[in-house]
Design brief:
The chain is mainly α. The protein has 3 domains: about 100 residues, Alpha-Beta Plaits (2-Layer Sandwich), CATH 3.30.70; about 60 residues, no CATH class; about 40 residues, no CATH class. Strands 1-2 form a two-stranded antiparallel sheet. Helix 1 packs antiparallel against helix 2. The protein starts with a helix and ends with a helix.
Length: about 210
């Protein structure tokens, strides 16, 4: 919230100036976000707020993941101390309890998801992880619909059970796929010289 900007900012400087050997802050954008009572999972439902958007480069290994997890936890706690919330990031470095504190309407969101998509056609790893925890960590006085397991009524759609991980790494390390990727960059995705994008991907996955 606007009234807590200075408290947040002063503590934020201390956090981001700590020594992180595997996490590098490349950019920080500050956005002013008006109070939003329309969006269901609004992160500015109660007041106008400043949103701090972090862009990190993280080394792709266990240490990098541990450091960014620790950093996320510090930022989340600081946001709570300042009566703020946090935007739900891609990495699941927050507990269900923290998510519920930031988004007390989350259980109703999951209920509506089951109503509008009872066969689970639209899903991802984030949803599968946190929706299942609503049954385990259900806060008191909240009536939650049970997880529905409904089979598809046609063969038109299929649900992919196996998650694809490190796809670019597999491409780069395979001789045949690596050359096909080069050809794709050269003949199809030619927004930039093929070697430029290829080198970016190659450095990122190694």
């Amino acid at each position: 919230p606007k009234s807590f900007f200075r408290q947040w900012y002063d503590q934020l400087k201390i956090i981001i100036q700590e020594n992180y050997s595997h996490v590098f802050l490349l950019n920080l954008t500050i956005r002013f976000v008006k109070k939003d009572q329309t969006t269901f999972l609004s992160y500015t439902k109660n007041a106008d707020c400043y949103a701090f958007v972090f862009y990190f480069r993280i080394k792709c290994n266990e240490v990098g993941d541990q450091q960014v997890h620790m950093l996320h936890q510090k930022l989340i706690q600081l946001a709570f101390d300042c009566h703020g919330t946090f935007y739900l990031p891609y990495r699941q470095h927050y507990t269900f309890e923290q998510m519920f504190q930031a988004y007390p309407m989350i259980n109703e969101f999951f209920e509506k998801k089951l109503i509008y998509d009872p066969i689970g056609l639209f899903s991802n790893d984030w949803y599968e992880n946190y929706q299942q925890q609503t049954v385990i960590n259900q806060p008191k006085n909240i009536n939650l619909l049970p997880m529905k397991k409904i089979g598809l009524i046609t063969n038109q759609f299929s649900i992919v059970e196996q998650r694809r991980m490190h796809s670019f790494r597999h491409v780069i390390l395979n001789d045949v796929m690596r050359e096909k990727f080069r050809k794709f960059l050269r003949t199809v995705f030619n927004a930039e010289p093929d070697y430029v994008i290829f080198n970016y991907v190659n450095r990122a996955v190694r």
